[in-house]
Write a structure and sequence with these properties.
Elements (H helix, E strand, L loop, with lengths): L3 H15 L1 H12 L9 H14 L3 E5 L3 H4 L17 E6 L10 E6 L19 E3 L2 E3 L3 H20 L3 E2 L3 E6 L7 H8 L6 E4 L7 E5 L1 E10 L3 E2 L9 H21 L15 E8 L5 E2 L2 E10 L5 H17 L2 H5 L3 E9 L2 E2 L5 H14 L5 E4 L5 H7 L4 E3 L4 E2 L7 E3 H19 L1 E2 L6
Parallel strand pairs: 3-7, 3-8, 8-18, 9-17
Antiparallel strand pairs: 1-2, 2-7, 4-5, 5-20, 6-21, 9-16, 10-14, 10-15, 11-13, 12-14, 19-20
Helix pairs in contact: 1-5, 1-12, 2-5, 5-12, 7-8, 10-12
Length: about 425
Amino acid sequence: MKTENDLTLESVFEQIDASWEEEVDFLQKICQFPSTLGNEAPVQHFIADFLEKEMGLAVSKVIPDPEKLSSHPGYSESDWSYDERPVVIGEYRSEGKKKGKSVIFQGHIDVVSPEPVSFWKHDPWGAEIVGNKMYGRGTADMKSGVAAMIFALKAVRDAGIKLSSDVMIKTVTEEECTGNGALAAIEEGFKADVALIPEPLGQKGLIAQVGVIWVKVKVKGLGAHTERADKAVNSIIESYKMINALLDFEKALNSQEKHKDFTDHPHPYNINIGKIHSGDWPSTVPSECIVEARVGFPPGVKPQDLKDDLKAYLLAAAQKDEWLSENPPEISFYGFHAEGFSIDPNQELFDVLNDAHMVTEEKPLEFFSFTATTDARFYNLYYGIPATCYGPTGGALHAPNEWVDLESVKRVTKTYAAFLLKWCGYSGKVIEE
């Protein structure tokens, strides 16, 4: 005989199945917004309207204020404006006595550039469906998760279930470069007992992630017309020496004893040479070259300590070169100032997530240590709010032809709904006909 809980869960799952086309349509629409850095406002207003008008949530918008945030240890310095680039928060406020616990579902709507677009077989902003996959920039990372978390709550409510604790839906900016959007919303007081972030980790639970910083290395040369190139100093060629030093630093990081959550990973700490820009004319020896890189490092290391070590390492390498010792590179940091973390999976958040996962996947939840960073760090490191990531299955993140598996999106939507029912508690009965 089915229990009341069984019947309630069935009714919510039936609602997810019935609204699946609506969820896919919603996902397509938000993926068709080119919400790269600085261009997030249109999709944020679209989501805010949906949360308010279609779901009846109390909606707030927060604009990050660098002056307010700058003293926070998790703040990342940026050199761009936050004007008209809101973080959106939709609140479901439970009625009466709160029986369960509150939760934040937080997804980022900023995406990286799809360039070079010529490498794509599908329109990066088309959200084209082929078979069971949706292709496009941000389909996996992570607008599919945003759709899943929104439609999980919507299905619970549409099934007539009243949750017994509060739920926040956050869509944040700048997860891909600073995390300041998430930080700003927490600092404005939008907190809960736990947080779930639907990163596309293939339905695994995140228990650790590395720290990340961005470094900028400016290398000087001695410019000239190309006819005097033999007497000039080409800054691009000189920059190779700093690139090699960065890669040597990467080897040194990975040769150390690994953090306990990364012992099985052969190369957890990656340094990526992401940008090089120099020169403006083929027949001119360039006087300056700027190299920008992303640096990963172990949990437990403070970002500033890593910056200090890296800067000292690069300057020491420059001292070994005739030109660079007399013309040392300028080393600066911007963007990510992100500390890594490790979280104990033996706690209620993971117990309830495992139960919900078992309902849809019929196997125990697997754990995952991530060699990148997510916004979960803010909750775990600075606010005592347990947070993890759990989301759909996809591929080609930050690459051409990004895709998400739509069946996994539906299953994640159901897992989130099952999590909501157990974590928040609920009232109202479903009667079997």
